[in-house]
Q: What sequence folds into this?
């Protein structure tokens, strides 16, 4: 394997093709280039090759490389290997990595299937708003759009996030309630089907996002109190391969809307959101139903 370096990029030559790795990029977009890996994997590879690490750390890095949503399919492999991977890792019918356009189409159709009573308690944000918020040129605009959602009048706000080529789900609970409330005090949930990708790495951006939402709405809460809103990461079912994260987030939304308690209290946490929350068969059935809804709208 040869390697050349120019202007912050490293090009690695493999027998079947070339993989370009951008060493200066913080991450990749929701629609990654076919031959580009994101910073997390670069970090793992560099760590493995240049630093002494324990056996356990090496195993964790290797496992991450095999299951991460933006590493799979970036490095060419023999056709026989691809077939073996597909045979040993059966996936739902939403087999492709979901881009934001496809995700929003599925989300809109699913939202229409919910009862009006359910929709009264929920709001959801566009799947690109969180990423757009982190960009200096569009952050203010996103906050204006969120105002129109009246999220402080809802019990739950669903915030799909696509970041570093990976989908996760952020849920705001009882943001309209007082931060001093003992019963329905605000909290946040972060549902991630790839826990080894470290969901908490999103926390700094989430904290800033929440503070700016409160401030743009002219809320009276002090910044220190807002910073104390709990961010909970329940141990939910984990994806089986590198392309299911978008489907998992859609299923998280579907089940949460159905099963969310009337009032989310910390003493009941994590409620139904456990590692055995649903089965692979349940996910398969959901994906089939979702695709049928999509075909009905065409």
A:
């Amino acid at each position: 394997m040869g390697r050349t370096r120019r202007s912050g990029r490293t090009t690695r030559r493999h027998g079947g093709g070339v993989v370009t790795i951008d060493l200066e990029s913080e991450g990749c977009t929701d629609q990654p280039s076919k031959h580009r890996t994101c910073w997390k994997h670069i970090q793992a590879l560099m760590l493995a090759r240049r630093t002494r690490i324990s056996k356990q750390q090496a195993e964790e890095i290797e496992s991450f490389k095999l299951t991460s949503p933006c590493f799979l399919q970036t490095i060419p492999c023999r056709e026989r290997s691809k077939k073996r991977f597909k045979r040993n890792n059966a996936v739902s019918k939403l087999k492709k990595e979901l881009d934001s356009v496809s995700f929003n189409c599925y989300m809109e159709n699913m939202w229409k299937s919910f009862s009006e009573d359910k929709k009264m308690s929920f709001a959801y944000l566009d799947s690109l708003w969180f990423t757009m918020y982190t960009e200096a040129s569009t952050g203010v605009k996103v906050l204006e759009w969120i105002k129109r959602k009246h999220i402080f009048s809802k019990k739950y706000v669903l915030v799909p996030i696509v970041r570093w080529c990976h989908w996760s789900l952020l849920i705001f609970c009882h943001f309209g309630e007082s931060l001093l409330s003992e019963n329905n005090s605000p909290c946040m949930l972060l549902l991630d089907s790839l826990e080894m990708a470290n969901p908490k790495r999103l926390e700094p951006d989430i904290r800033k996002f929440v503070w700016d939402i409160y401030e743009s709405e002219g809320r009276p809460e002090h910044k220190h109190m807002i910073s104390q809103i709990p961010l909970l990461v329940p141990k939910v079912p984990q994806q089986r391969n590198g392309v299911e994260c978008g489907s998992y987030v859609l299923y998280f939304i579907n089940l949460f809307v159905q099963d969310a308690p009337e009032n989310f209290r910390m003493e009941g946490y994590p409620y139904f959101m456990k590692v055995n929350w649903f089965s692979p068969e349940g996910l398969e059935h959901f994906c089939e139903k979702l695709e049928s809804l999509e075909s009905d709208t065409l």
Summary: The radius of gyration is 20 Å.
